[in-house]
Amino acid sequence: MFRTLKYRPDFPHKGFASLEEARKWAQAFVHWYNQVHQHSGLNFVTPEQCHTGEHIAILEKHREVYDEGMKKHPERWARSVRNWSSYEQVALNLSERRRKRNHWGNHNIPFFPSDGSQKHGLSFDFHH
User: Fold this and answer.
1) Distance from C-alpha of 70 to C-alpha of 67, rounded to nearest angstrom
2) Confidence class of residue 95 from pLDDT cuts 50, 70 and 90?
3) Among the four 6, 13, 52, 72, which has the fewest Cβ within 10 Å?
4) What is the pLDDT of residues 28-71, one digit of tens each?
């Protein structure tokens, strides 16, 4: 997440003028990160969509569109269609040993609630 943060075009590389300015910027970043940014590690949906369950329908629609595209123009496809399956769990900084044991893959997308709650998004279970 730090790399995503520091490479944002509006990241103040020279620092913040005040603590209040830093908090305001961080709050806007958290909103963007959770509700706007489509994460490649989540198959291009947002963490918010995963937490609400919206990601299931979105990923199903992506799969349908890609399947239809492949049927109409197979010559444009060198490989199979991307796997648009949803993940049952993701975790932040999951150890390699644990990742192999649980077959979670490398889906390290944290979720930081923008409502100010004290939940920490270190591991998520998407069963609803």
Assistant:
1) 5
2) low
3) 13
4) 999 999 999 998 888 999 999 998 999 999 999 999 999 999 99
Question: What is the residue whose two structure tokens read 């490989």?
Answer: 79
Q: What is the 3-state secondary structure (H, E, C) of the chain?
A: CHHHHHCCCCCCCCCCCCHHHHHHHHHHHHHHHHHCCCEHHHCCECHHHHHHCHHHHHHHHHHHHHHHHHHHCHHHCCCCCCCCCCCCEEECCCCHHHHHHHCCCCCCCCECCCCCCCCCECEEECCC
pLDDT of residue 62: 94
Residue 48 backbone phi and psi in degrees, to 5: -60, -45
Sign (positive or negative) of CA dihedral 12, 18, 23, 25:
negative
